[in-house]
Fold:
Amino acid sequence: MIADTIRQIETELAGRAQLIAVTKTKPVELLREAYEAGCRMFGENKVQEMAEKQPQLPADVAWHLIGHLQTNKVKYIAPFVALIHSVDSLKLLQEINKQAAKQNRVIDCLLQIYIADEETKFGLSADEAEGLINDPTLENLLSIRIVGLMGLATNTDNEEQIRAEFRGLKQLYDKLGAIEGANLNFSELSMGMSGDYRIAVDEGSTLVRVGSAIFGSRT
Ligand SMILES: *Cc1c(COP(=O)(O)O)cnc(C)c1O
Structure:
């Protein structure tokens, strides 16, 4: 039962982090079931899929884009997206700013940081993220707000490695969060998925992105 699993995870989180139900590839009926069980935050990794599902759910759902975002697709989610977790360049941030301004919105963003010991994951290095935060052109982007960082740990059974990766991301979050700027307002650290959210919350996550533990494996 989806509702039981959601309740169990919420109990485990005990208010330390918020649960984003990752619903990629899942049909709208399952999203409605999660909504009925109290979920108000949904995570999708593809722009088109999110834009198709959004009008089919109640308006108080907060839609989180957690997958790689191409600049030419920002316009499709700019009217409604609550938080973009996957910003990995100044160019993308400039496009989000442009599309947000067209909608008279300010769009909240996280910088995706590369923390895993894998070659396939997107994201900025710690140095690149610091460079972006300190870029003088950033302060012109008044229709975006950088509210924190996101990262994916290595897909491994080695809990100590996962913990070390999350701990490093938390340290970077604390460091960059101390930098002041008109559109900087660090309050969210998005880390932890089905296999590692307990470790992530121990290490300071504020947003966990959980899919298969709630909805079953994706085919
Ligand atoms: C798919 C996905 C998740 C959820 O993964 P599960 O292992 O199913 O919980 C979390 N974060 C990102 C970025 C994803 O793409």
Q: What stands out?
A: The domain at 2-214 is CATH 3.20.20.10 (TIM Barrel).
